[in-house]
UniProtKB/TrEMBL annotation, chain A:
Similarity field: Belongs to the binding-protein-dependent transport system permease family. CysTW subfamily.
GO molecular function terms noted in the UniProt entry: phosphate transmembrane transporter activity
InterPro entries: MetI-like, MetI-like_sf, Phosphate_PstA, Phosphate_transprt_permease
PROSITE patterns: ABC_TM1 (PS50928)
GO biological process entries: phosphate ion transmembrane transport
Listed transmembrane segments: 29-50, 56-76, 88-111, 144-171, 183-206, 212-230, 262-283, 330-351
Subcellular location(s) per record: Cell membrane
ABC transmembrane type-1 domain segment(s): 145-348
Pfam families named in the record: BPD_transp_1
GO CC annotation terms, alphabetical: plasma membrane
Name listed for the protein in its UniProt record: Unannotated protein
TrEMBL record, chain B:
SMART domains hit by this protein: AAA
Organism encoding this protein: freshwater metagenome
Protein name: Unannotated protein
Source species taxonomy: unclassified sequences, metagenomes, ecological metagenomes
Gene Ontology molecular function terms on file: ATP binding; ATP hydrolysis activity; phosphate transmembrane transporter activity
This protein's UniProt keywords: ATP-binding, Nucleotide-binding, Transport
Length: 357, 279
């Protein structure tokens, strides 16, 4: 004998309302949490206002006090097993807030100082005939922004294909040399950026093979970008399930077609991330450019002929000057660099969106 | 399936395959196939013949080497690390492991459907069906026709015909499995290997795929690994029973017409297995 569902026998069914029983809390819980939040807060504010303790120290001691208070609240409501939970939550929230504050302060100092310099001429003019003491209304950073774009584009054109090819060798070809290749890629990511610049300087520029130029800077950047792209691409290719590879091979696909038409498209978003991380790794590097692309107050468009300015170099040059206007120019250049990075990332994300075709 | 139904299906199959003449030429044959993973021997001395345009079921408990065996039949086994193999696999009389044989060409003729549906996530439904043509470099002009025909064979056409441009990932598990069957059919293989194609599917989808298998067997040779004994009875002309003792390599205990294996097995272990007493 079984029972069947019959709404007629369940008269209460009509009166049922949507509830969230898991959200129910006792008054004791609410009161404990309120006390645990309020007491440390009041204590810390009082310390800040009425004691001689420096503000930074007050901020530092807040976390342990809050942890203790939350622990007490946890014991009051859930017993001993609540303590670990409360400690982890307070730490996690505290650490997130700390990171958030740090990032916001960096952004804020950048925006508040950089906006002073920002103007139409600043974005469109170069620095020919501009000395550190020239007022802010004259000259701009367009030449440096163009330089950075040129150098980064050149390095990406070199490092991205090689990096992805390396990742494909490691995850798809799985040849005998994989351990050695991985070892070298890993070692390469430890190369200090100044060494990358020195390498290009001594091997290519001083030997007369190439000029101090955007191309030389791009080569130095490529040395730095390559391991980042290769390692990140390797990670994301590894995430592509083997089912897809076997599935493609079972259809009579060659290895090359499997990689190009199945594996890479499946990892497209991740590959874009690898490229972004590679660009992010190099775009602010100053040291290699000091030796390879140099500086130039005029606008240069030929990537092979002349020294060329870039945003990091422009910041480096201006920030140490004893003139407030020069320092403002440095902040402005830094802001442009930030915005440039933001634009690049947005564009890359849009391009990398998984679109099925 | 009730006993009466079972008897009935046995009768039907006996009628269909009563004379040896209908058996036809052997299309695929395994001779003394043994398989290792590193030092562990997982399969020993498998001798099986797969006659043209028939369905052969490989049954047996988990871990007896059925899936490993089926992957040796189109050279997918060798992709796994530590794989080794002895013996021969003859396709149309020639060893597919011969030195001049190209695995890509072999896999084009001997297709495979896997346990887990694996549609390509970066392609649409239509793109998935045609992916085999693209991946193997086949040139065909009648794409629309191929899409409709293979999806119809796989029993999926009516459900997807209005959204061929949608992502394959939108389909349910059962639909995805029928999609990958259509994908495998689009390159027109002569042999189709199926590794537990219905293990993740509901009864309705399973039935549809079984119908597809029966329909396809008129034109191609099918080898299917299954844990579902009723399924073997429903779809297979021949059945091979694999078994592995503990820490021993697996081997074929008994093989023959499905009606014989299920109705009159010679080995006690086969009898126990097909009657659900172990495994």
């Amino acid at each position: 004998m079984t029972t069947t569902f019959d709404p007629a026998t369940l008269p209460n069914l009509q009166q049922q309302k949507k509830m969230h029983p898991w959200r129910k809390r006792t008054t004791k819980f609410d009161v404990s949490v309120a006390i645990a939040v309020a007491v440390p807060m009041v204590f810390v504010i009082a310390l800040f206002l009425f004691s001689d303790m420096p503000g930074a120290l007050v901020f530092v001691i807040y976390l342990p006090i809050q942890m203790f208070a939350s622990g007490c609240a946890a014991v009051a409501t859930k017993g001993n097993r609540g303590i670990v939970d409360s400690v982890i939550i307070v730490n996690a929230v505290g650490a997130s807030i700390f990171t958030f504050v740090v990032i916001l302060s960096v952004l804020w100092s950048l925006v508040s100082n950089g906006l002073k310099a920002l103007s139409i001429p600043f974005l469109t003019q170069n620095s020919t005939y501009i000395s550190p003491s020239t007022p802010l209304e004259y000259g701009g950073m367009a030449h440096a922004a163009l330089g950075t774009l040129l150098i980064v584009t050149i390095s990406a054109l070199i490092a991205v294909p090689i990096g992805i090819a390396t990742a494909i060798y490691i995850t798809e070809v799985r040849g005998k040399a994989v351990p050695y290749v991985r070892f070298f890629v890993q070692s390469m990511s430890g190369v200090p950026s100044v060494v990358a610049g020195l390498f290009i300087l001594t091997t290519l520029i001083l030997t007369g093979a190439i000029n101090t130029s955007a191309f030389a800077g791009g080569l130095a950047y490529a040395v730095l970008m390559l391991p980042t792209v290769a390692r990140t691409a390797e990670e994301v290719l590894r995430l592509v399930p083997d089912d897809l590879r076997t599935g493609a091979l079972a259809l009579g696909s060659t290895r090359a077609r499997t990689v190009l038409q199945v594996v890479l498209p499946a990892a497209k978003t991740g590959i874009v991330t690898a490229i972004i991380l590679g660009i992010a790794r190099v775009i602010g590097e100053t040291a290699p450019l000091l030796m390879t692309s140099g500086k130039n107050d005029a606008t240069v468009t030929n990537p092979f002929s002349d020294p060329i300015s870039s945003l990091p170099i422009a910041i480096f040059e201006n920030v140490a000057q004893p003139y407030p206007d020069a320092v403002s120019r440095a902040w402005g250049a830094a802001l442009i660099l930030m915005v440039l990075v933001a634009i690049l990332f947005t564009v890359a994300r849009l391009l990398g969106r998984t679109k099925v075709k | 399936m009730s006993t009466a139904e079972f008897e009935q299906s046995v009768v039907v199959l006996e009628e269909e395959f009563s004379t040896p003449a209908q058996r036809g030429p052997v299309e695929l044959e395994a001779r003394d196939v043994s398989v290792w993973f590193n030092t562990r021997k997982v399969l020993e001395g498998v001798n099986l013949q797969f006659p043209k345009n028939t369905v052969t079921a490989l049954i047996g408990p988990s871990g007896c080497g059925k899936s490993t065996f089926i992957r040796t039949l189109n050279r997918l086994h060798e992709l796994l690390p530590g794989a080794a193999l002895a013996g021969e696999v003859l396709y149309e009389g020639e060893d597919i492991y011969g030195p001049t044989k190209d695995p890509v060409h072999i896999r084009l003729n001997i297709g495979m459907v896997f346990q887990k549906p694996n549609p390509f996530p970066s392609m649409t439904i239509r793109g998935n069906v045609l992916s085999g043509l693209k991946l193997s470099g086949m040139k065909r002009s009648n794409h629309d026709e191929i899409v409709e025909q293979t999806l119809t064979s796989a029993g999926l056409w009516n459900e997807v015909k209005d959204r061929l441009g949608h992502a394959a990932g939108e389909l349910s598990g059962g639909q995805q499995q029928r999609l990958v069957i259509a994908r495998a059919l689009a390159v027109q293989p002569h042999v189709l290997l199926m590794d537990e194609p219905c293990s993740a599917l509901d009864p309705a989808s399973t039935l549809k795929i079984e119908e597809t298998i029966r329909e396809l067997s008129k034109e191609i040779t099918i080898v299917i690994v299954t844990h579902n004994m009723q399924q073997a009875v429903r779809v297979a002309d021949y059945t091979a029973f694999f078994l592995a003792a503990e820490n021993e390599p697996g081997h074929v205990v008994e093989q023959g017409r499905t009606t014989e294996i299920f109705g009159n097995p010679q080995d006690q272990r086969t009898l126990d297995y097909v009657n659900g007493r172990f495994g």
